[in-house]
UniProtKB/TrEMBL annotation:
This is Cell division cycle protein 123 homolog,Cell division cycle protein 123. It comes from Mytilus coruscus. Keywords: Cell cycle, Cell division. The keyword Cell cycle applies. Signal peptide: none annotated.
Amino acid sequence: MKVDEVLQCSFPSWYNKFKDITIKSYMIPLPQEFIDYLHADGIVLPAESITASAQESNDDNMEGEEIDVDWDDDDGPIAEEPSFPEFETTIKNKIKSCGGKVFPKLNWSSPQDATWISFDKTLKCTCPSDIYLLLKSSEFITHDLTQPFYKCEDYDEDRSDITVKYHLILRQWQDLNPAAEFRCYVRNNQLLAISQRHHSIYYEHIVDQREDIVADIKSFFYHMVSPKFPCTNYSFDVYRRDKGKLLLIDFNPFGSVTDSLMFTWKELEEAESLESTGTDSADFPAFRCVARPEGVQPSPYATCGVPRDIIDLATGQDPYKLMDLLKLKVQNQNEESSDDDEDTIATPTT
């Protein structure tokens, strides 16, 4: 994976070339103060976005009610509220242009790992505060901002010729059927492999329609994608609305920073042939899906929203945390034992 391949997969680099076959989207340049806000610790939403959301909610659902709630906490420190009035006005206008519902992303990633914090557990946003909350809660977004060229073989931190202009991408919300999403891997301009996008769910019809799905994606790739995309190695996501009707969703670099789903990156990078689900055929592209209910895999976002310390303890990734936990347990037991001894001494005998 190389720096130029990552840059070509950045949304602003490819959208205008493929806007006729992808979802309607708007690109808003990120002001530096908003980038600084995303880098800052903690989650503090701009006051104007909260006020606007509350006013809309009151107008729609709480007409005639009077609520008097004091949220002030005089005992704790007061976090400074950020403010981006011009940026927020632009966001509101673009949301309106998209029909009132959008899903956000930055140049490469969407905050898929932060859906646990949204009200409906999706990326659907109807106001700026929804967008801010998802972006601030996502490690994927942090990766976009801090390590976009992670694992690039030709990247050097001292390079001064690489400039990334970050954008907030607002894509028109569509209720996509997850059973119709597929990820495709391209190596040396050849469609190498196709994977069911959501491998944590079993869809019976995918196995039955496998040949038609592969034929549609091959035709879409060689006629609509390959002639316009400048890289020879990459991956792309498609949505198959119906037979012969496909929608381009996104591009991703061909490398381990992209989820390999039902393949492994060793297979994709080294194998001369790949087996498909339910067949011994090694023809390209290889196609894999969940062939039976027992074959589902855990959702890659299952642990998102769980405190990192708990994950480290459960997986054994950080033995020092386990040692600290055991020491704390012993300390608590000693304190309880000491308290019991003191109670026994203080109890008078008759």
